[in-house]
Amino acid sequence: MADLKGPDKSNRFEFIKQGVSRVIALGLGMLGGFTAFASRRSNTVWQIDPSKCVQCEHCSTDCVVSPSAVKCVQSYPVCGYCQLCFGYFQPNAPELTAAAENQLCPTDAIERIFVDDPYWEYNIEEDKCIGCAKCVQACEMFGNASFYLQVRHDVCVNCNNCSIAMQCPSDAWERVPADDPYILKHIPRQTAGLRIAPPQFHV
Amino acid sequence: MNNKQLSIVLVGIIGSIAVGFLTLLFQIPLKVTIKKRITDYEAEIEAGNIVIDDGSKKKTSVESVTIEGNFEKFDGQPGETTSEWPRFRGADFSNIAKEDVALAESWQSGGPPVLWGPVKLGEGHSGPAIWKGRVFIMDYDEEKQGDALRCFSMSDGKEIWRRWYKNPIKRNHGVSRTIPAITEKYTVSMGPQCHVMCVDTETGEFLWGIDSIEEYGSVTPLWYTGQCPLIEDNIAVLAPCGSSLMIGVDCATGDVMWQTPNVDKWKMSHSSIIPMTLQGKKMYVYCSMNGVFAVSAELEDRGKLLWKSHLWAHSVTSPSPIQIDEERLFLTVGYGGGSMMMKVTRQGEEFVPEVLFELTKKVFSCEQQTPLFYQDHLFAVLPKDAAALRGQFACMDTDGELVWTSGKTERFGLGPFLMADDKIFILNDNGELTLIKASLDGYQRLAQAQVLEGHDAWAPMALVDGKLLLRDSKQLICLDVSRL
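The joint structure predicted for all components is written out below.
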């Protein structure tokens, strides 16, 4: 004979109770996970490790921002302040003047300032810099390597899908803490877990 | 509502929440705004920390220098040597020690025994010269702000005497970078700002001086003078490249015996004058910034310009020319300039230079040091811009064909190399000394050791009686590299 009794109400209540508990637990878990992930994401940004950069020029061509959010920066304690700066002048420049034909930078983004004989100071005009790294390469080869590339976080849109990082041939791109977003040559990194930049001599 | 319906509702709720989270996770652009700038130039300029100057303002005035300066005597005593290293690249300009002293083929882990040193020096790249138990080195005394010609004992490194003159200048990748020329009677030095000083070799007594900038209108090369003086037949041969291209000065009197006019206004480089005999004619060859030229070194027409070529013009020229044979000379530079093999022919009384071939920086060139020429082959450390060959030690024949390189695991910097006893010493920028076999068959490392603290160990080395003198930017040491 068939059981004519309806559904067991106590079982249904237990089922709903357990189900809601599980949904809440799952939701809290996902919320926690998302919060942790989002927090981690929000606390790190992309940056270029200068010791790994090979000046391939992808930084100038592959950024979603135009001109690129990657700019050359100058490490003043590392710079030799040379009258003939190989990062500034074309090889065998006819004259050591700021005339366009003498300059290596294609966008005139390096400012050359006389300081005191025999020193000259070189500043990057970041609005003009396109991150082509021509100056960086020359400075690395023939100078003190005081020019190097960094992602400028006042320009970068932090799209989390960095097209340059995907193209970088030397794994120079890494995530760094957002509150310490630059890998500066003359300042050792304080953040645990990140590589400490090697000390640079001052010439 | 039965269990099935409840399940559907719950799955729906879970799904909605998951979709919501995933949407948040992947679709909302996460904006991290960092306004921090590495250097705020406008603020720095406003604060006066950066002064805009186009360089047209008058530069720091150069004080008149009294080259005789001051003399100091110390308690060092001359040592004993059986051979000499009397100038840049040694007695015959080859940078090859010809003495018959067997050298060690391997070293203890700490490197060859240190005979003396380190002797503290002013920051620079000037190498030592050795004469009769004495070591001469051009230095810069940072405390006294003076160029100093210093004489040390070869036996223990103690200073014997010092003659220095006040010349306040700022360091510019070091200060001093020349090697004095030594003879029995005379020692001639060239300071960082082209001050020439001649003294008595034994006593350090001042004989005469020339301020090349003041007297000849020389322009000090970038990073200061690298030209090492030459003495031949008691005549100091110098290339002021001002009003005169080259001059000969009687060491005894300081009288200018001959001078070559500088009609093209060619400028001084970091290279040094090398005597050569090409097409049967003895001549002094010099690479200026604007071209290479040769001046007669023979008595009947000494000082006469024999030939010149503007085809070897580079903004920075450090290596000196190398004679290959009776008609060819090899030229090289760094900073992307490459190399050139030049031939000089004689047409009657005229000498005509021509380019045989040129080599790019990726084939063979050298940035700061002059290559070795041994068994009809050239040896040098290739420059940083030599692509895959960067920093490798290389051997090349005189047709411009590479014979071997040291390989990608054996790279060097801008430091010097010197040959002796069929071996080559190579000093790296960081003070690491490597000993290799001098061979046309390939690179064979014999020994390697960290012998100096570094950095910028760029000065040419000197070797006498199995004792190697070498320095980094701030200290000089003497190593026993003989076979013990």
